[in-house]
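Handout, tutorial session.
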Amino acid sequence: IARSFAFIQKRFPVMNFKWAYLILVVLFSSCGGSSDLVSNPPFKIVEANKKEMDKKGYSISFNTSALPRDIAFKSLYFGKRKAQVLWDDENTYYADFPLYTSDGEKVLSADMSEESNNPLPIMPVEVPHPLKENEALLHYSEGEETYYTIFEVQ
């Protein structure tokens, strides 16, 4: 191997192989903390429901068993949409999925400057793991590690 490496260095003196080594080391040793899909999380989703929000979108609420102290809910994915998980009541959490970025009135006009203040629609996001139509993906952390779990929404 050393001879072939010396041959390559002689043939291509302009290339600096220290940079190539550095790039390879960074690529193979990146510690991006993978987020794993967990089928048996340290808590239980007791009930999950979807509620319409007066033609403005929908909300997913779910009840959990008692949570360990180091568990924190990050976000919820549902139907190619992502929302922050918020606390509602003891062991009850929710995530709102509005249709638009604000509740403002939509203006239709021949003058584009008047329409420029219309609320923008929420764009779909790429879900980290494939979901069925009635499933939600919960992103949570346990200490420093992050995980995903899938549950069914009624």
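The second record follows below. Compare its token runs with those of the first.
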Amino acid sequence: PIHHGKPKALFINALDNDVMPFIRYEIGDLGRIIPEQCPCGKTLMRLYVEGRKDAHVILSNGKTLHPFIFYNIVREHFRAIKKYQVIQESLQGIRLKIVPDTMFSPAIAHSIKRALANVMGAGVEIALELVQDIPLGRRGKHSPIISFAHFNNHL
């Protein structure tokens, strides 16, 4: 069950498929219940879809960080960064790949690492890696956040 305010993995049931119904099929998204009533007056519970499960970073306390948190940190230096990607391989660390532009400097790298440390908290290792390019994912899209921590049943 999804509790108010806490994002959880979403599952669907699709019983109208004559060949094979989907029962508790995990769709790969996170969602949470919105406790407030809809402005239109309907009293049913509402669901807010947070986004793809593997696009959220998970902290060791179970809290999930939305991709916009990282976007906002990097956006402060948008003229110095062509592209970025956050990779979380475990709860103990993240790797930030950056394709630098000509304005990128060690001071910007330090500023980004400090902002990430404030968001991630103590005990999380943050590695910054400058790269020439970040390849597209297997679906042909750029993935700014990749988290492998969700495979360990943290969501």
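Points raised in discussion: The longest strand covers residues 22-34.
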